[in-house]
Amino acid sequence: MQLPAPRGPLTAALFERLRRPPHTFDPPPVPAGGPAVEDEDLQLALFACYELHYQGFEEVRQEWEWEPSLLAARKALERRWEEGLARAVPRPPLMPGVPMRRALAELVAADEGPRLAAFLARQADLEQFREFVTHRSIYHLKEADPHTWAIPRLSGRPKAALVEIQADEYGGGRVERMHSELFRATMRGLDLDDSYGAHLDRVPAITLAISNAMSLFGLHRRHLGALLGHLAAFEMTSSAPNHRYSLGLRRLGGDETARRFYDEHVQADAVHEQVAAHDMCGGFVAQHPSRAGDVLYGAACALALDRLFAEHVMDRWRCGVSSLRETREAREADLMAGTR
User: Do 254 and 190 form a contact (C-beta atoms < 8 A)?
Assistant: First the structure.
């Protein structure tokens, strides 16, 4: 993956540094402004910093991953991101005596976001479905990786539960069944570039924010409870939407191979949601009662960010415009198409 185009002074300064050999530098100032979840410059800068802990960028040396001055810069970015998350997502109240499984179920049941899945099932055209898949590629091409950071930080029942979930995500050791590989097949079926990070320049801040929340929770041990709650909400809200995505893709001519990613999640996540809520989160809270609030907060973050993403996409489509960012390459492709 190549470094993307900058989106403001933060990413311009950061990417200029990252293209050079590792060196000490003063962290660039992080300007305060509007909602952090909508800040293109902030979200892209954070995503780039986090990506060094995943597959990285071709032109960025691996030694940058633990360079102290870069970690200091990331810390400043994370401070704004955490403050922005706290403003956007109120911490759910704790309910004394209520089992964690029930508390998570009630939190999920109370969430009413835009009906993006229903729209994709019944009304979306092929280009809109391709846009949706382009957005989701930012996470699904490294599906499960952010939550895997939790495995060495757990013990006993919650650790075994997380390993059970992640083993399915990684295809039980069979590469062709890995969920990231199944998603690649969906992308190929829609004639989309399925290479890792290929669409980074085109996705907006809210799409990056979804991944950045996972990486924030995954890379900091203090956010372990939030990471588990995030995964639980992810699994508990997966089966029904994925069924609708499969229906929509079938309506638009997608074959069985292209739909398999969604069909797999309908079955797997129906099991995963029970394991995640009861064994993983319930077991974790039994071991660490004081961190129950963190679990619910992580779940609330997952729900809120997905709702904001759906609102962004649906609002753009209602206005008859793309939910993706326009890039120079996209404009050139449109011009070429218009001359044919």
Answer: yes
pTM of the predicted model over 0.90: yes
Plot region of 253 (φ>0 → left; ψ -120 to 50 → alpha; else → beta)? left
What letter does residue 199 receive in the DSSP assignment?
T
Scored b (16 or more CB within 10 A) or e, 143-161 reads: bbbbbbbbeeebeebbbeb
pLDDT in tens, 188-226: 999 999 999 999 999 999 999 999 999 999 999 999 999
328 and 201 in contact (C-beta within 8 Å)?
A: no
Calculate the CA 285 to chain-centre distance: 24
Residue 33's pLDDT is 78
Pair 190, 255: CB distance under 8 Å? no
Domains of the chain in start order, with CATH, are 9-88 (no CATH), 100-339 (1.20.910.10)
Max CA-CA distance within the chain? 66
Alpha-carbon gap, residue 71 to 3, rounded angstroms:
18
Q: Is the dihedral of CA 310, 234, 42, 294 positive or negative?
A: positive
pLDDT at 112: 74
Burial 264-292, CB ≥16 within 10 A → b, else e: bbbebbbebbebbbbbbbbbbbeeeeebb
Interval 190-199: pLDDT, tens: 999 999 999 9
Residue 245 and residue 121 in contact, taking contact as beta carbons nearer than 8 Å: yes
Rounded to 5 degrees, φ, ψ at 191 are 60, 40
